[in-house]
Amino acid sequence: MMSKSYTNLLDLASGNFPIMGRERKRLPRVMTVAGVISELDDDNANSVSSDVQSSIVQDRIIIVANQLPVKAKRRPDNKGWSFSWDEDSLLLQLKDGLPEDMEVLYVGSLTVEVDSNEQDDVSQLLLDRFKCVPAFLPADILTKFYHGFCKQHLWPLFHYMLPFSATHGGRFDRTLWEAYVAANKIFSQRVIEIINPEDDYVWIHDYHLMVLPTFLRRRFNRLRMGFFLHSPFPSSEIYRTLPVREEILKALLNSDLIGFHTFDYARHFLSCCSRMLGLEYQSKRGYIGLDYYGRTIGIKIMPVGIHMGQIESVLKLADKEWRVGELKQKFEGKTVLLGVDDMDIFKGVNLKLLAMEQMLKQHPKWQGRAVLVQIANPARGRGKDLEETQAEIYSSVKRINEKFGQTAYQPIVFIDKPVSLSERVAYYTIAECVVVTAVRDGMNLIPYEYIVCRQGNSISESDSESSGPKKSMLVVSEFIGCSPSLSGAIRVNPWNVESTAEAMNEAISMVEPEKQLRHEKHYRYVSTHDVAYWSRSVFQDMERTCKDHFRRRCWGIGLGFGFRVIALDPNFRKLSIDAIVNAYVKSKRRAILLDYDGTVMPQTSINKTPSQEVISIINKLCGDAKNTVFVVSGRGRDSLSKWFSPCKKLGIAAEHGYFVRWSADKDWEICGQSTDFGWIQIAEPVMKLYTEATDGSSIETKESALVWHHRDADPGFGSSQAKELLDHLESVLANEPVAAKSGQYIVEVKPQGVSKGLVAEKVFTSMHESGKHADFVLCIGDDRSDEDMFEIIGNALNNGVISSNTNVFACTVGQKPSKAKYYLDDPTDVIMMLDALADASDSPPSSDGETGSP
């Protein structure tokens, strides 16, 4: 059944929504592969890709963001536009960390509206002079996309604001989501116009373009693509309230690398992937990766830095442009605390004002001496919540100044206008402490700028004060992205006004040597972890994550935002039923080894009894005298012998091979190295402790093993408890003849020397010793325990137990990393394949199922 989340989106996701505005001519580009590029998302079109890399090798990266790093203004004569670089743009600054010979192109929108009859000329001008490609959004889409979905839904939700009512946060509006999808599609079309798919990298920035990866991946399966989120990513409890939660997650997973500023944000994203998509991450050699249909998506954690060169160059000009001396004279004898924030509901500006008021109350010595200069940059959004926040701030400023103000003294200096970087630098230079009390913020680079400014520029410094020891103090909210990297800052919970007030007092009262030590520590970090360091690190991880793209076989499946790319090793392919039937018919002696759960029985099935269809198929296979058929399972022998009682000639290996029976008329053999089960008295109490502490978990007691199940527990907690339990068991059972292993939602303790691989070895050796070398081997399973069988097959080939001419079909269920050479998608495919083999078998008719001999 189709998810309701796709309602009204099928046309958008398939690229069939009406064209907005007139058709524009495409920008010129160099194609690196042959063929015609048809419309995006056309289900009849193949991805533009090739198994061989392009012969044209040119290092190039396309940076995609909501806004281009250029400033635009109308010419005085109103004829055309003039453009210039926006030196404050992160997109422009990050070039410093990319390889020097790498060409950088930008795709994004402009901050101004350009008439449709000027768009072609503007596009060509920006491409020629700035290597920028503008995405022109129709006015109705722009409003719904940016001010609608981005600012009314994503921005509040990512900052932990839930839409509790129509008047508080607003209800989810599907038309805004449709505009968001449409806008992302327009951005994708502009990228497609200039991309060389096999040579270029694409780096997408921020929450405005979270579904763009799907549009690009659908078109170019092997595209090397990264995404970096510059806002917080909320906890799963918050994110899961978003009606299009899975669509956005799946779109992001079409990237090769997904970047976050802090581990908290990355952890929340990984938790969402686990709880909503069932994906578990792995950490290997310091890198975090998510396996998604054969592709490993890298997770990058790296806070962005500032552009050191820009700040230092402004420092040289600060005295001239803003006359720092005059500011020092204005605040002479005063201790200046500084706040620099956007006028935003999440910046906590009023909490800062209340903390200042509290400090003046609790520490009267600062009355007439301490001044909070609060710079409020213009708001980027709009709405009732913002208006209420502004009114609250103005009211607090007025009240505090009236209460504590004196002649020639106001405790709050509120600057409510745009402030240039050079003007900010002047205030940083005179401020004793910077205070950031945002209740939630993605990164916030204000503390970094302040630290560098307090270090100063030795070239332009002449007075003795500037050339003396450097010092700076920071009071920062624990809820902002830069907080973890500033270990010398005083971290506060901004909601606790009293503790923030005490932190501000502590910061400005601290002894000078301590201020200097903290400043030195911060400056060492900020100066070495600048924006170039950040972009270099992210790009290097993108290169590493994408290095195997052209070695693997890729193809796309799925509709709408369910689209994903399957990436497999060239030697790992889907098992062809025709090929295996052909080999089966030609063979004379066959070994068939079948796992049960997840292979012939779906894992999600509640009733685990095999169907009559499965019984019939296995009986046909067993009835062929050329076949030796085994079910190799972790289940107990009682259950398996009961379920397969109609299959008289079927071999059964129960409990991973601890018990083996060659046919129904033979006795069970014990294959373990030990029959001493005293270890159960040690392991069982430990498992019970974890069962009591983990709701939804249970213990399964087998004859030879104990299994702790956590499939029905909370995914995150169950996984964490499983790791702890495994460590605990390995510790207490270190001297026992058993092995503790983890599997799919289980932790199992079983005797040493017991594995499915040893069962396979036993079957092959028995056939070899009886002079009946297997010339056809089918081994199929779905989980980690079955990998032992696949490995044994390789060893048997090397040892001569299986002839090198033997047709071997080692097959896993599901497309995932495996030692098997083949895969089938699910148990339905497995049964279909086995049915085809059964139809090709030489089975004499029989009513009791006893057909032939093994």
TrEMBL record:
Catalytic activity: D-glucose 6-phosphate + UDP-alpha-D-glucose = alpha,alpha-trehalose 6-phosphate + UDP + H(+)
Top EC class, one word: transferase
Alphabetic keyword roster: Glycosyltransferase, Phosphoprotein, Transferase
Entry GO terms, CC: cytosol
Alphabetical list of CDD domains matching this protein: GT20_TPS, HAD_TPP
Catalytic activity, EC: 2.4.1.15
GO MF: alpha,alpha-trehalose-phosphate synthase (UDP-forming) activity; trehalose-phosphatase activity
UniProt key word Glycosyltransferase: yes
SUPFAM superfamilies assigned to the protein according to its UniProt record, in alphabetical order: HAD-like (SSF56784), UDP-Glycosyltransferase/glycogen phosphorylase (SSF53756)
UniProt GO BP: trehalose biosynthetic process
Family designation: In the C-terminal section; belongs to the trehalose phosphatase family.
PANTHER family: TREHALOSE 6-PHOSPHATE PHOSPHATASE (PTHR10788:SF113), TREHALOSE-6-PHOSPHATE SYNTHASE (PTHR10788)
Name the record gives this protein: alpha,alpha-trehalose-phosphate synthase (UDP-forming)
Natural source organism: Rubus argutus (Southern blackberry)
